[in-house]
Structures are given as structure tokens and as C-alpha cells.
Amino acid sequence: MLIAKHLQIRRNASEALYETVLVREDGEELFLTATPLAGEGLAPMMARVGRHLRQLPWRAVGMTVFTGATGSERREELLRAAFGAVEWPVTWLQTDDDSCDGPAGVEVHAVNGPEVRTIRLRTRTVGCAWEDAAARHCELGDLRDEQTAHSPPVQTRQVLEDMAAALRQANMEFRHVYRTWFRNRDILGWYGDFNRVRTEFFSRTRVFDGLLPASTGIGAANSGGAALVCGLWAMHPKAPDIEARAMDSPLQGSATKYGSSFSRAVEVDLGDHRRQTISGTASIAPAGETLHVGDVAAQVELTMRVVRAILNSRGMDWAQVTRGVAYFRQSTDMGSYLRWCQANNVKNMPMIVSHHTVCRDDLLYETEIDAVADVS
Hints:
alpha+beta, CATH 3.30.1330.40, 3 domains, 6 helices, 18 strands, 22% helix
């Protein structure tokens, strides 16, 4: 199957809005990152995003909101005011630092053209499914166990089973998943149990026989009080030349060697363009030990060098980034990202900078990044 190569990639950065638009023969796709203007609260930031989306008949298929320690308890009110009826999954992530009470940003994934089907489990919207000439696509979000009295491992098993159930509604299986997010409350207290449950599920569902998804596991609170809230991206190709494949990191070893079941990155080839989704990446040596303990600037520098090496390995660089999140363990360290950008002349990268606990107590920084490039 030959996919038409007529693709335009438009990138724009203005007024704390960063967007990448893929213009294809069968529709358009938007990756939008909004960060707060000086002194801007959550409600006006969300309203600004809503006005921007209404400029074209965009249909959101997924949204992630990074709030402060409070704010998400008003989520339904804020969503209705900004967007009207919401028929896509919205994941709300809170910092666990009471001193950080302002929003960090909003990510939106949207399409214009394809028919979108909403996926629901029980009473909640957890996903959207759509298709184009190359593949069927599914995005899931806000997946969490509402029975919060369950132990964290039990909640993890429930969420993984819910992922599989939602994928079946999109006529997919877990083997079609290429990217996951696990935002774990009190992550340092039970990360080992989480990894064990995930690995058991992946073994039982034979994920290890195919593509091991890229992933982020990060500490984050949520207003529902769940042990974790999760999401994923999946793709069911329509032709053999459309595929998702795991990528090695030139500067780090496999995460599976120290008990974490994810690929360092995944590249998705959709015929007219390639996408990279890079897992949560931190200051870790090839053998798995933490480097630059206690030095946040050095951890940021090494982490960004590792991420850039992955991008460069497939002909991409910072200019091709479509979205990213910079996670800092200490809120007082968050200025380190801007200082790194200034030192490396990196401008207008769509990055949300937020305070969240990284999965090791000696890691001060972690980042995840996605990028898109045409096939030329």
C-alpha cells in the first residue's frame, strides 16, 4: 500500500501557545501545548486554549492538564466553560507540592477531518478512536480505578485490564500500543510493585513477543485519590509498510535490564511522515545507575544530551519536537530548564515544566519528548 506523500508540517509559537499541524490529504492533526502567561490562572489559560481550537473545527482526541496542588476539583466547570461538551479523555495531574498552586500547562491532541468515535468504560469517557489512510488510531486517557480503597498493585491490575477493554472497543489489542503513561501517586513508595504488576501483565498478554511500548512512569497526584492515572497511544496499521518499531538509545542501555518494562523510544512510520515518542528519560548511566547525584544542572544537561542523541539517530533535532514535559523533583529547581535552553540556544520548544516526583529518590529531573518529521 502506498500512502500519498503530500504532507505539510506547520509549526507556530505565539502567546504561550505552541502548535504543530500535520496537513495530509485525508485530514489534519494538531499537537498543541499551552503554558500560562505571566500571572495567568488555570481558568483563563483553559479559555485561551478553547478559543484557539475554535478557529478551526478541531475535534480533540486527548487532553492532559497539569495543575498545581489544587484546581482539578473544578475540572467539569472549567472544561464546560472553555470547550462546551467534552467527548474526549481529559487527564488531570496535580503536583504534590502545596507551594506550587499555579497551572503548568495543557496538552491537546486533535484532528480535523476523520470521524472520531468516543470510547467509554462504565460511566466515564476514556478514549477516542479514528482512522486515516495509513492506520486506525486510538488514544486513551484518565484511566484509573475508582475503587481507591484497593491497594496500589490491585489498582494497577485494574487499570491494565481497563486499557485492554477500551482497546477492544477500538478493535485493537495491546500489541498495537506504542506509547503508555503511568502517573503514580507516591511513586517512590511502591514503584517496585508497579513494575512487577506491569511486567506480569505484559508477560501474560505476550507484549514482550512484539513491540514493547515507550513509556513514562512519574509521580503525580490526582483529585480522585487513585493510586495511578494512565493513558496510551495505539495504532493498527492498514499495510505492512506502516509500522511502529522500538528504538535504542545511543547513550543508555535497555531499561528492561534493571526491571522496567519499556522501550527507550518508539518510531512510528506512517508513510508520509515519521514520529518519535521518547520515554521518560533521566540521568542514568548505560548500566542503570544514577549519575550526577545532587547536581540538578548536570542531570538536566546529561538527560537532554541523551534525548538529543535519540532524535539525531533518526535525523531529527529540537526543531522537530511536537510536545514534551520537563519534570523536576524540587520546585526550586524548575528554572534549570530555562537556563539549559538559554545556554544551548534552544527557543520555542513546546515543553511544559512541572513539579513531579521522579521514580528514584536521587533523580532530580526527567523529561519526555515527541517529534515529527517528513520522510524526505
